[in-house]
Amino acid sequence: xNDRPQYIEKIQSWMGQPxxxxxxxxxxxxxxxxxxxxxxxxxxxxxxxxxLLILNMxxxxxxxxxxxxxxxxxxxxxxxxxxxxxxxxxxxxQEVEGWERCINSLLAEAxxxxxVTGSNANLFSAGLATLLAGRHVVIPVYPLSFREFCxxxxxxxxxxxxxxxxxxxxxxxxxxxxxxxxxKESPDLGRDYLGAILDTVVLxxxxxxxxxxxxxxLTLLLRFAAGNLxxxxxxxxIADWLKSEHRSLSVETVQNYVQYLAEAQLLYPVQRxxxxxxxxxxxQEKLFLADLGLRHVLIPxxxxxxxxxxxxxxxxxxxxxxWRVSVGKSGDREVDFVAERNGELQYIQVAYxxxxxxxxxREFSVLEDIRxxxxxxxxxxxxxxxxxxxxxxxxxxxxxxxxxxxxxAGSTAMDT
Length: 416
Fold this sequence. Notes:
An eight-stranded mixed β-sheet has the order 7-6-8-9-10-11-13-12, with helices on both faces. The two termini are about 35 Å apart. It has two domains: about 5-140, Rossmann fold; about 145-405, no CATH class. The protein has helices spanning about 5-10, 30-45, 70-80, 100-110, 120-130, 145-155, 160-170, 175, 180-185, 185-210, 215-225, 235-245, 250-265, 295-300, 305-320, 355-370, 395-405, and strands spanning about 20-25, 50-55, 85-90, 115-120, 135-140, 265-275, 280-290, 325-330, 335-340, 345-350, 375-380, 390, 390-395, 410-415. It is α/β, with parallel strands linked by helices. Residues about 405-415 have low confidence and may be disordered. Helices cover about 45% and strands about 20% of the residues.
């Protein structure tokens, strides 16, 4: 099993603290493996096997303890007395009916240290915040970063590796099952694996939870997003597009479905921000996929769409590094990303190549027009570039992605 030390270090920094450690991310992003890795790490540090309890609530074997009361009794039978050296890890905790009450009681009694995982962002933000009054910490778990992708394959960074990453994404299961076999020797197997994950997330985390009447539209909406990465959209523009496809849904329904996909952590809606007016513009935004491998399932692979895919990769890397990201508007021009973190601010343009002075001027001038002293970056696939101009730095994108100088992935603490 491949290690993901940046996450293990983050989780361990909270171990022993009277808070619930919540690992939140889309299905198959590696949360279950992180629990196994954490268990191995705790054992290596002297924890006894009878002090660890890992429960995968998607297993039929545990169906009889899938309620708050039965899970509570089961944990008490395995851990007969309170001791924070004991660690309970519950995978896909949302499968337990009323799970918040069980976890809340165990926390209040200081019965054991608590680590849970789940695939629905709204479930945690609503359920935990209401019942537990903020006594939890959320650690986002993302599919593999480009650096992790290269490390899992034991290869260095570069354009060839980046193209594979753009095409197949970063879901760890592709590597556990044999990346080369599933993507090169038998690419249909790779697509089938990714398609099965997509179907599971759509059906289990969205259709069942929200009683969606038109499941096919969710896939249609994902296909729209996959084909328009990096483009501004509004719910009305999607509704108008649907009419052209002989489908009809209200703007409100479109907005609801986008929210469902975001809660399942399949899509990230990114709002637009007026740099000059210092205000969020709610009427237009961009949609990015949580993993680009899913795009390979939704629409055919096309290298001519690389600009939007590069934006998607940069967005995901920024949020991994704990930046809050929006799309910038400066006058009538667009800045790909405005990123803010702990009072820091930076502006980023993403380009495929800058083959001519005119192209270079277009990308740099957008940032030059912003009259402040915050860092400004241009990221592209120009292996040999100028390094920047007028204080704006230019980086070779694979190097920037691989460097990840400010890992680990961030967390949102909500302590009282």
